[in-house]
Amino acid sequence: MKEELRLVCLVKFVPDVDAFSYDFAHNQLNRNYVRMILNPDDACALAFALQVKKTYPSTRLEVVTMAPRSVEHHMLDLLRLHVDGGYMLTDPLFAGSDTYATTTILSSFLSQLSYDCILTGTRSLDGATSHVPSQLAEALGLDHMQDISRIDLESIKRQRPECTVEYEEETVTYAMDMPAILSLTRTSGYKLPYIAYEDFEKDVSDRLTFITHEQLECSPAAIGFSGSLTHVVDTFAQEHERRNRTIVQSDEAGIEYVYAFLKKRGYM
Amino acid sequence: MKHVLVVQDTDCFANSKNLLALTQLMYDAGTYHVSLLALQKDVEDAEGYFHQIITAPESLYEMMHLAGICDVIEHLQKAHQFTSILIPATHTGRMLAPRLARRLHTGLVADVHEVQQRESTLMMIRTAYAGNLMAGITAVGDGPMMMSVHPDSFSYNQSPDVYTSIQDYDGPIPSTSTLRIVRREKKRVSYDIRKSDILISGGGGVTRYFPILHQLADALGGVVSASRKLVDQGLAPRSIQVGQSGKFVSPRLYIALGINGAIQHVEGLQDIETIIAVNTNVQAPICSLSDIVVEGDAKDFIEKLLARIHNTPHTHEGDT
Hints:
The structure holds 2 protein chains of 2 kinds.
Chain A: E1 6-11, E2 13-15, E3 21-23, E4 28-30, E5 36-38, H1 40-55, E6 60-66, H2 72-79, E7 85-89, H3 99-110, E8 117-121, H4 131-140, E9 143-151, H5 153-157, E10 162-166, E11 170-175, E12 180-184, E13 208-211, E14 230-236, E15 246-249, H6 252-264
Parallel strand pairs in A: 1-6, 1-8, 6-7, 7-13, 8-12, 9-12
Antiparallel strand pairs in A: 2-5, 3-4, 9-10, 10-11
Chain B: E1 2-7, H1 13-26, E2 32-38, E3 52-55, H2 58-62, H3 66-80, E4 84-88, H4 91-104, E5 108-112, E6 114-118, E7 121-128, E8 133-139, E9 145-149, E10 165-168, E11 180-186, E12 198-202, H5 213-220, E13 223-226, H6 228-232, E14 253-257, H7 263-266, E15 274-279, H8 285-288, E16 292-295, H9 298-309
Parallel strand pairs in B: 1-2, 1-4, 2-3, 3-10, 4-9, 5-9, 12-13, 12-14, 14-15, 15-16
Antiparallel strand pairs in B: 6-7, 7-8
Helix pairs in contact in B: 3-4, 5-9
């Protein structure tokens, strides 16, 4: 058994898309005042990593994100949860990267780090492609599992994590050697702790390192928009069929209306 | 001649076959040839639909050895120069497709559910921002066009009418995997919400009493489904989730209880005969798409409608 377990948690900060509202009457999406949040699946991964660290205090936990500098304060808050170190991959050259180019950047950085396990979320709220963890597994030559709803804590320490995935008709538990990439889902229910009161104003900036493309072994042509192999050429709102609705109350007359409707249409 | 590779959906053969409808939208008739990469040996159903079936060693799928499956496709790609590779967006497909795209140094579009020709370029359409917007995406670069395809997005109803050649893959598989299955447990209750004519569906407005939806479903001979909000809160399994990140459903009757109607949810409602929304807010987006809107509390509605169905007077909790 190794003395120190080294975990890397890969996270993304995303727009809180659930706060988007949609006006079906005018086919307009209202994106005003939407804040950035830690991607919920990634939050579960970090919450699990913190559980590991709490159980095995010699664990070293580092958080990695590729993000613009504007989310620095979010990263500092994660470091206040007793995360040992954070890396922000920040460079204007990274802008416009699709999942392929993002993987090029992240794999280039991660290959410089020492780790036993990379924990991350399965889907991001904004893109929800689930591409990056699988592509990283390919680029780094690691085994990978996603949609994980539970990881056996002790198995992590044994360097062969056992993780459970819920399928339609069965629950399957997989095991694999470390290093590996494990992607969790929100249904895992792992919850991030709150920042302790005494840590609210704690200066943790010395634990945050900024990484630019110059520190990575990837050419500018392989990253950003120019390194992307897919391009978004259009975005639009889907038209939905509006119906001539009848509005009733949940009172005797309304229930009778619904009951008669169901009978007449043969649903009962 | 274009050459398309379809990777088998091991959960449901129809999903593999339905990708033939997608190829018809991509290429003109007679200008393409479709091969199926079978991950399981039982491929009789596929004969007559695909021009070629190539069977990979079954152990690769059984052991979830995705790098090994990439070895197979990489080798086949060198031999066949596929124009496009289509992968069903199942749990396995969602992990396989990105790995393969990386291996082949090609772009990948996820969860495609529509394609459109834009001038001379194929635009692949998927949802973005949790289903709040649609995005049209094109592939650039020299590699094959790759997409994972949302199940239920395409339907192929033609009879099998092509000659199918079958061959076993016997090329190299240099990758290794340490992944093993430790346990499998059958779930006690499972049903497919796509097969029911009547869905009683719950959202954020019924978090405190989601189980009582089953009573209404039983009374109407339907089953219960849920919005993403309930699934994320652990109140309902993902297998009964309706929407872009869940399942596309087409019941005759859809009763939406306490569901707001985010786009990602509405995307999952296809060709539904009747929608009844029960909501305290008649301005909720789902209400614009409904035939009947019942303004009120969903629990109260369920209890009163059940009482009417059973022809017994409704009594409030606490009434004596």
